[in-house]
Design a protein that fits this description.
Layout: H1 2-39, E1 53-62, E2 65-75, E3 80-91, E4 98-99, E5 109-110, E6 115-131, E7 140-156, E8 158-162, E9 165-166, E10 169-170, E11 173-177, E12 188-191, E13 202-216, E14 223-236, E15 251-265
Antiparallel strand pairs: 1-2, 1-15, 2-3, 3-6, 4-5, 6-7, 7-13, 8-11, 8-12, 9-10, 13-14, 14-15
Length: 267
């Protein structure tokens, strides 16, 4: 009985093997055609593989200044990403009005401006893909939410001041930090070089929150080309004294748009 079962198994194996070999002339060309079709699919240069991380640079314009940022992203899966970034941004007071001086070589200034405010940001964020790109030259839409530490750099504004006339002649030009109690507009010739006051910078620690929509449009999947737009809120531990004759703020809310360029990596 056992011998008959063994013989039946051997015969069945040989028959099935013969059938597969007989069909190989049909199956192999079919498999080859599938591989060729995949290789010839040029919608995405790498078959939309999942990249592990990316590195990008962002240049931004917002409602009270400009900024730059370096961002490092880590993909959790195709739809979710964590990232950190380091950035720099300028922030102006809403009441600033630039005045152009009469003398050609003098620099424009803002009357009443006591200090400039720049911000260093360290950010941690999360990005969620909302709409995946499906076609060649399509777009990918994501939403990101981030926040972190802000460090305000508050630098005194220095101006070139015309010294009083004595016996019909000017006594020259002096460079001084603007003081609303001492300097009238008629004395101001223009803004002094930026380096003045760097050694007097004061630090204002704070926090920031940001929400944005990210639209990627790169035709090459491993490259990052995107526009990001949203809202950012910076808050400092006390009011920042930017202007002399206007109410100063502790919170700064801005709309922004950023242009993002970078590359994705598999390692």
């Amino acid at each position: 009985m056992v011998g008959k079962q063994l013989l039946f198994c051997i015969v069945s194996f040989v028959a099935s093997t013969h059938f597969v070999l007989a069909q190989s002339d049909t199956l192999v060309p079919l498999a080859d055609s599938v591989v060729v079709e995949i290789k010839n699919d040029t919608r995405f240069d790498d078959g939309r593989q999942l990249y592990k991380n990316d590195l990008s640079f962002l240049a931004s314009a917002h409602t009270s200044g400009w900024g730059v940022q370096v961002r490092k992203g880590y993909n959790l899966d195709l739809f979710n990403k964590l990232y950190w970034s380091v950035g720099f941004s300028t922030i102006k007071h809403s009441k600033e009005v630039k005045i152009s001086p009469f003398e050609g070589d003098a620099k424009g200034y803002v009357f009443g401006k006591k200090n400039t405010l720049s911000v260093l940001r360290g950010t941690f964020g999360y990005q969620k893909m909302l709409f995946e790109r499906e076609e060649y030259k399509g777009v990918e839409v994501g939403f990101n939410l981030s926040g972190g530490f802000s460090l305000g750099l508050v630098k005194p504004v220095y101006l070139e001041l015309q010294e009083p006339f004595v016996n019909g002649s000017s006594q020259g030009i002096s460079i001084q930090a603007y003081d609303e109690n001492k300097h009238s507009q008629i004395q101001i010739r223009g803004r002094a070089p930026f380096v003045y006051g760097i050694n007097q910078i004061e630090f204002y620690p704070g926090l920031h929150l940001k929400a944005a929509v990210n639209i990627q449009y790169s035709a090459v999947d491993k490259s990052i080309r995107a526009v990001e737009t949203g809202i950012v809120l910076d808050g400092f531990y006390k009011k920042v004294p930017i202007m002399a004759f206007s109410n100063n703020q502790q919170l700064f809310l801005n709309l922004f748009v950023s242009w993002q360029f970078g590359k994705k990596y598999t390692k």
